[in-house]
Amino acid sequence: RMMHWGWGIDEFEPPDDYLRGMQRAVPAGAINPRYRAMLIYWLIEVADRFQLRVDSMVRTVKLMDRVPHDNKATLQLLGMACMMIACKVEEVYAPEVRDYMWITDKRHSEEELRDMERHVLAALDFSVHEPLLTYFVEPCNDTPLVEYLVYLATMDSSLSGLLPSVVAETIMDIATKKPPRHPDCVAMFKTATDTL
């Protein structure tokens, strides 16, 4: 038993199935995969324009996938609100609301964006911080191929409910040209090898 400042470390260890709690089913009313892909393409361009970290983009998509949303007209607004929340978590200097207004040519008002942000936070019960697949990939390898595979995995709606560690392990398998060890990720492996 390890001791630290008089406290037993074992008392503060997370339960063995901690990461299992991070695996989430896609909510009812989830975004249509086609619209989801179009929105993610646009969000990647926005992230590139704002020079955001990959973690911010991955968290944006992770948040977006957890919020039930079936209104096609406000899909861009949902993406912006999720990106705004993700940037507040991941970035040192997050873009300001007026930056989001500028990037959309003021298609939505500042009040609409703030309302959507409140809606997203309420829908998620303010639970916005969970492990991302980039947390598992970054210590191992930080190459353009791995970054490409992270974006590919983020876009694939069939992988959105899987554990981030499983997806990260599959990314590393693909990057090192090993067959994937997880059957849930075989589709991703086939897609990635077809595009390489």
Structure description:
There is one protein chain. With 196 residues, the protein is an all-alpha fold. It has helices spanning 33-49, 54-66, 75-90, 97-103, 110-123, 133-137, 144-155, 164-175, 186-195; strands at residues 3-4, 7-8. A two-stranded antiparallel ribbon has the order 1-2. Strand 1 and strand 2 (7-8) form a beta hairpin. Helix 1 runs antiparallel to helix 2 (54-66) and helix 3 (75-90) packs across helix 5 (110-123). The model has no long low-confidence stretch (mean pLDDT 80).
Secondary-structure blueprint:
Blueprint lengths: L2 E2 L2 E2 L24 H17 L4 H13 L8 H16 L6 H7 L6 H14 L9 H5 L6 H12 L8 H12 L10 H10 L1
Antiparallel strand pairs: 1-2
Helix pairs in contact: 1-2, 1-3, 2-3, 2-7, 3-5, 7-8
Q: What is the number of beta strands? A: 2
Mean model confidence by pLDDT = 80
> Main beta sheet, described?
2 strands, antiparallel
What is the terminal separation in angstroms?
48 Å
The tally of helices reads 9
Write down the secondary-structure element order: EEHHHHHHHHH
Low-confidence stretches: none
β-strand amount? under 5%
Helix content: 40-55%
Q: What is the strand arrangement across the widest sheet?
A: 1-2
Structural class: mainly alpha
Gyration radius, in Å:
18 Å
- Assign an overall shape: globular
Could you give a quick summary of the protein structure above?
Helix 1 (33-49) packs antiparallel against helix 2, helix 3 (75-90) crosses helix 5 (110-123) and helix 7 (144-155) packs across helix 8 (164-175). This protein is mainly α. It contains nine helices and two strands.
